[in-house]
Q: What sequence folds into this?
């Protein structure tokens, strides 16, 4: 018998705390598969956010550090500066990164900190029960926008990749989605590319994953993936915004 | 010779999200009538011999439940 596909040793055997069908699980798995394929599980350090991924250090089989809400980039910058030989990453939701942590991510990118940020954009605050995030789409319902987000009340959803791509030292910026096997393969290629560029110490690297939160959106998992493809990708184009030749 | 595959589910890890079921191009997967230790209806394969080893299910599973093996001759 030859193994064609087996769960990565980058994930611990612990059951995750994520809801059925939550995209956090797919994002975790592909990031850890990439680290395993690079033989880097022993020299990777991750920084965990506040949000549903607060427990990611129980699931990702690498050294990890907890952070306060939105502050993971500041901690990762410090870790990478004192450990230049390590692969350092933050893993952050859209409430964490685009709201309370907006200043940290912008300045980490601006300084060209040599770590990678994995940004899980599910257009909602998951952990706290579905409040509106800066990334919530116009018309999308949230517990703090019961009839749907309006431009009048909350402005337009923040496009984080587009914003970071204006910063010179953000040298790799790509948005991917986790909605079908082909897109998952593309997402893995983006993770590898970001890590290649981090290892070459070229600057700040960033991958955004358009993700599903079936629970707070109120959709079955399969329908939630369709919603990502139809609604989220229409506003948040899936593409590479910046890259460097190595 | 036609390649043959064996699909294995980690039954107790499964959360019954049905994502694998919807992505199998051969429509070989289903949720079991029984429940697992977590109380979910876990995914299972209805026709093992028809699996083409495409990995669509495993690539989409959010909970690392799926392993796929290619069988050698005589297995
Ligand atoms: C300083 C501070 N303010 C607010 C909170 C409450 N809080 C916990 S998680 C969260 C938002 C998480 O949303 P997101 O980053 O989108 O992650 P998700 O849960 O959707 O994965 C908030 C506001 C907190 N823990 N700390
Ligand atoms: S609340 Fe949403 S983001 Fe959080 S674990 Fe559940 S599905 Fe995932
Ligand atoms: S995708 Fe994974 S967790 Fe979801 S039903 Fe299939 S095996 Fe279970």
A:
């Amino acid at each position: 018998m030859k193994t064609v596909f087996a769960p990565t040793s980058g994930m611990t055997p612990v059951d995750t705390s994520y809801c059925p069908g939550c995209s956090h699980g797919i994002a975790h798995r592909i990031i850890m598969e990439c680290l395993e394929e690079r033989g880097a599980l022993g020299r990777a350090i991750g920084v965990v956010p506040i949000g549903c991924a607060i427990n990611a250090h129980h699931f990702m089989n690498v050294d990890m550090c907890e952070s306060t809400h939105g502050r993971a980039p500041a901690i990762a910058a410090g870790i990478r500066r004192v450990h230049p030989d390590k692969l350092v990453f933050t893993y952050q939701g859209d409430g964490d990164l685009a709201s309370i942590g907006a200043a940290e991510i912008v300045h980490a990118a601006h300084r060209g900190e040599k770590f990678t940020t994995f940004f899980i954009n599910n257009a909602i605050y998951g952990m706290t029960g579905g409040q509106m995030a800066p990334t919530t789409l116009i018309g999308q319902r949230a517990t703090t926008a019961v009839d749907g987000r309006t431009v009048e009340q909350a402005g337009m959803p923040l496009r984080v990749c587009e914003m970071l791509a204006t910063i010179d030292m953000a040298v790799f910026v790509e948005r991917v989605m986790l909605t079908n096997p082909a897109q998952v393969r593309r997402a893995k290629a983006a993770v590898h590319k970001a890590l290649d560029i981090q290892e070459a110490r070229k600057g700040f690297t960033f991958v955004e994953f358009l993700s599903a939160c079936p629970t707070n959106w109120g959709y079955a998992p399969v329908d939630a993936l369709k919603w990502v493809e139809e609604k989220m990708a229409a506003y948040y184009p899936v593409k590479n915004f910046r890259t460097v030749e190595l | 010779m036609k390649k043959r595959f064996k699909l294995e589910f980690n039954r107790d890890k499964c959360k019954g999200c049905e994502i694998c079921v919807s992505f199998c191009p051969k429509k070989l997967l289903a949720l079991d009538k029984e429940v697992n230790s977590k109380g979910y209806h876990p995914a299972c394969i209805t026709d093992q011999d028809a699996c083409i080893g495409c990995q669509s299910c495993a690539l989409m599973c959010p909970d690392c439940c799926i392993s796929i093996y290619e069988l050698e001759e005589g297995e």
Observations:
- The interface with chain A takes residues 5-6, 10, 13, 15-19, 22-23, 38, 40, 53-56, 58-72, 75 of chain B (CB under 8 Å).
